[in-house]
Amino acid sequence: MSMQMPWYARTVFVAGRPLVLVAALAMSVPGEIQMAQAAGWHGWVAWLMPVCISAYAAAAAVIAEVRRRMALPGRLTATIGAGAALGLALSAQVVAHLIEQSYMHTSAVLVALVSAVPPLVVAHMLHMAATPAGEMTASAQIRQLEELVAAMAGEMADAFEREGNALVSKAHCVKNSYEELAADIERLVAQADAMADEFAGDLAAAKQVEPKPRRQGSARKAIPVKVVKEAVAAMQAEGKKVTGLTLAERLGCSERSGYRYLGEISIA
């Protein structure tokens, strides 16, 4: 997540760094020139000392950081050189100002150390320039590419396997839900059939007790119990279901009479 800064903060952040760098280098120049003059350089040659100290320190710091980030060879020597350059620039400023304020005077040791700066800078810069950049050959690049492709293929296979397992698990869940739903439907159908049978029985019982109007004319003669029993026995022998309705059809009487005759032989 990027941090949004106000415009003035962005201005200081973008323009402040190079401005500070230029100002620091400019303030370092007089002391380094004075050190060069104290060591015996004069004229325009003394003006090259800031390049050998401050500019060299900046270049060595950048090279060291680039080699560290890119994991290139020569990181250790570049870091050591950047530290030495920083210490040299700091020492040059301190010594130059001490001499300027008459706290110390030049000496043979100081002249020798300052005179050794250009050769040391040249040696270290040539060393960093000669250090190989770590370029890979074609075979190394192909091998690295193959390793990358293999790693990506492994990750894709793992991802496909995870997704496949998830899909199989979801399919099992759907199947189990369908089976449970089918079982519930079968149970509801069975309950509906039972309720329908019970309703039909209740309806039949209601029809049995429902009074029917008497027919006009002479009443029919009652059928003997013996005849009723014979008819029931015949129906049972034929494998027919014996109910009030079927018995009435068999005897040729009304349904009500059929139930009544069936009740009479059952009681008897």
SSE string, helices as H and strands as E: HHHHHHHHH
Distance between the termini: 99 Å
Can you tell me the residue ranges where pLDDT is under 50 for at least 5 consecutive residues? none
Question: What's the pLDDT, averaged over the residues?
Answer: 76
How many strands? 0
Please count the helical segments: 9
Largest sheet properties:
none
- Helicity, as a percent range: over 70%
Shape: rod-shaped
Look at the helices and sheets and give the structural class: mainly alpha
Gyration radius over CA: 57 Å
Question: Into which percentage range does the β-strand content fall?
Answer: under 5%
Q: How would you summarize this macromolecular structure in one to three sentences?
A:
The chain has 268 residues and is mainly alpha-helical.
